[in-house]
Amino acid sequence: MFLFILLFLVGCGTGSDDSSSSENESDGSTKDKWVVGTDATYAPMEYMDSEGNIVGIDIDLVEAIAEELGKEVEFKNIGWEPLFPAVDNGEVDFAVSSITITDDRKESFDFTDPYYVANQVILVSEDSSIKSKDDLVGKRASVQINTTGHQVLKDLMGATSADIVASETMPIAIEELLNGNVEASVGDNSTVNEYIKNNPNVNVKLIEDNSFEKEYYGLMVKKGNSELVEELNKGIQAIKDSGKLKEITGFDVE
Ligand code: ARG
Q: Any idea which architecture 120-207 has in CATH?
């Protein structure tokens, strides 16, 4: 009897979800299933585990939001630069990728409320004399291309400076440092801290500089899809209220 009721309820649930998705698919906001793009090279935020699954803090976060809103979710490892056009052309419904909300990006995309706060840090070899951001001037430094770290270096050294080595991924940017091609590597503390933690035997050290601004991560949505932004914000608020966000990321963000 109980099983029968359960099956009946499940049947109804699926039925009504289906109809809402077909009614309103054009804006993506009421789909039953979200396709979510990421650049899974950014441990511990988004990366591939040894079995080839896309995992990480950002992934857990989106899964918690999806669960809150009764959505299914599928992640696609799109890469960093292609992620922006993928959101724009609807190949994915939104992106989660430690993406800093910036005024520049807000001209072309919409963002949810922030769910994480980060800042840039500098990675140098253990014997480096570099102590601050300003010490980078006149030195070669690597970053992941078109990130906020890249913008920091452009502001510091000039947009077309040959001292900036812009790599496809953050791990490649760090390789440039380990190979001796650059004297420093700049990236988000969320991932650089993890690199240091996982590689205690590599001769590098972390330089923090208080002049780096706080950066807030948001989910990035196609410009104009305010229904999806609202929906995601509801989910973010719910996991903030329940304490789930803090459980996933380790801290609360105002
Ligand atoms: N927070 C930085 C930015 O928005 C870097 C993000 C890079 N994320 C990644 N998954 N590669 O520019």
A: 3-Layer(aba) Sandwich (3.40)
Q: How many residues make up the chain in this entry? A: 254
Architecture of domain 33-117+215-249: 3-Layer(aba) Sandwich (3.40)
Per-residue pLDDT of 54-111, as tens digits, reads 999 999 999 999 999 999 999 999 999 999 999 999 999 999 999 999 999 999 999 9
In the chain, ranges of CATH 3.40.190.10 domains: 33-117+215-249, 120-207
Q: Are strands 184-188 and 220-222 parallel, antiparallel or unpaired?
A: unpaired
C-alpha closest to that of 124 among 142, 148, 138, 137: 142
Q: Which of 92, 113, 111, 76 is nearest to 224 (CA)?
A: 111
Report which protein residue has its CA nearest ligand 1's atom 12: 147
For residue 218, how many other CB atoms are within 10 A of its CB? 26
Å from CA of 169 to ligand 1 middle: 9
Report the predicted TM-score, pTM, of the whole model to 2 decimal places.
0.89
- Residues contacting ligand 1 via CB (< 6 Å): 39, 41-42, 46, 80, 97-100, 144, 147-148, 170, 188, 215
